[in-house]
């Protein structure tokens, strides 16, 4: 029998158990500190099951435990997870009460998670072959391939430069390669930066913001508040240029909806270095390459959505979070992290500034700024000669409505079209109508698997549940009273488009919502096709951001009222943010913009405050309400959710969980209660909400509570999860 090993590797595995697992190094190898941060493939579970994990520490074996099994393979010769990134991931595991192995799996791109080697990041480029040069001498068919070949005639071009200078070059390159006219080659060395396009001279407020960031040393948090068009992006670009000039890397987070090709090309042309994009639409291999290029310090700037917060920054200089209030920064399943909050944590661990920008900062960030934890920088004016749009309320009471649109609104659209300009009609609800209603008995079409009405689609020919995707054909007669008076109630974007088309038959019109716009870049294509011709855009919040529309002068918002009376304590904040965002689309160029809000509640304090004092006034009002009600940011929440086929199992589990909670000081437990949508996709759903004035007692209580919940027998009958700092209480 071999002597017991003196040391074991403690490995974090992507399994839902909050502990590390001990393994021996393979025979003939010794476990030393050089293993820490390396991935290993290990036997796990029954039979020949395997997992890929990361070595967290090297320690002494537990004398009472059975002898550890050897790892099957060490996958990295040098640590993959080191320094600040590893430290920040441990922070995530502790703060969100999640197993470190699952945090690591969330943070790593797919190929790295599954154990593939760190990909090559050597640059590749293209050059013309001898045949290619010869073919250029002869006359040939003009087209993309030939234009690309001409560009390659003088010198080889890197693929990163091709991406920037020749959009859609890949098919042309493939065509050339097939004919032997061009070839792909490996390039030596780093990208030579292209000439950076000069930026405008900064306005005083922008210059002050930059000066504040420049004078800071090490970690510092800055909240840059400025209306849409006030020049926040110019401030980011200047701060990133400073960071690059100092030889450091920069990370820029943007919301899902904000990562447009237009935004990326602005960053690329202004910074003059390759800018890596990271988002969920990217192929796995590309994500892994971008990760590796940042880890090796080859790439200097990454612009990405939520998950980009996990990118390595060995030479970090700056983190920017654009539209920091945006809901897409919060992950809503698995490990429910908030990328904006992680940006703060990483910047602190890295000792670099973090710049949070928004026209409508979250109440959390405003609260931090008021408390002096963030430096508050403001850009009050729009850049250039754009002026803020004028806004007014259209009182709907006692007015005749045409499918939800008032005559006043239709008139405003008509005047806008007559001026040869563009109008945006905004309704945050897709489909034809939200409900199919029996006019005689009040029956309405509900989803069989959810507590929700089915949305009418396809002009009334289809019913779709927006919560579980169920589809049905509308009945010909009411199932309850056999009446034939079934009518779609209210209007979604599809019906609004139909109504506007009847009223303005000659107007150019496009609709932008999830139905018409499945692909990420489809919005851009739609809007580019629209160009600056006069016409009407109809859409959901997909239209709230993106492509500049210089001829857009009217924004008409339909359906404000749904947000005014929601039970969600964040509804007011979200509505105000959305309204400001949509309104910001009007009058971005020299034409003056106008915003009209249709409502049955013209005297609602939120609308009045918004119109009179803008977002800062609404935010102050909301903060006061939150403080009075002791909601975040004046309290800290954690939500335990459970779902199961039967309500009894959900309630049984949640009651036992409540009983396990005990009575820890400084933390209140509320519930069990049904979720706001108590049944969804055939599952009963319930929850328990914890709240506390201070974070520390809340986390201490969770630490104590979670292992007890996991050990409950009733926990096996439900799917449960914990959400720390939930943004949605459903
Ligand atoms: P935001 O990010 O706040 O929406 P941007 O940075 O995109 O604002 O600026 C809005 C517009 O104003 C852009 O077209 C930008 O080029 C222009 N702009 C920004 N700063 C200046 C400046 N100092 N001088 C002139 N134009 C500017
Ligand atoms: Zn009926
Ligand atoms: Zn459903």
Descriptive report:
The protein is α/β, with parallel strands linked by helices and 730 residues long. It folds into five domains: 106 residues, PriA, 3(prime) DNA-binding domain (GIY-YIG endonuclease, 3-Layer(aba) Sandwich); 63 residues; 176 residues, P-loop containing nucleotide triphosphate hydrolases (Rossmann fold), CATH 3.40.50.300; 179 residues, P-loop containing nucleotide triphosphate hydrolases (Rossmann fold); 89 residues, Alpha-Beta Plaits (2-Layer Sandwich), CATH 3.30.70.600. The protein is 32% helix and 23% strand. The strands form eight sheets. A seven-stranded parallel beta sheet has the order 12-13-11-14-15-10-16, sandwiched between helices. β14, α12 and β15 form a beta-alpha-beta unit. α1 packs across α12, α18 packs antiparallel against α19 and α20 packs across α21. It is globular. The relative contact order is 0.08. The mean pLDDT is 90. One zinc ion (ZN) binds next to loops.
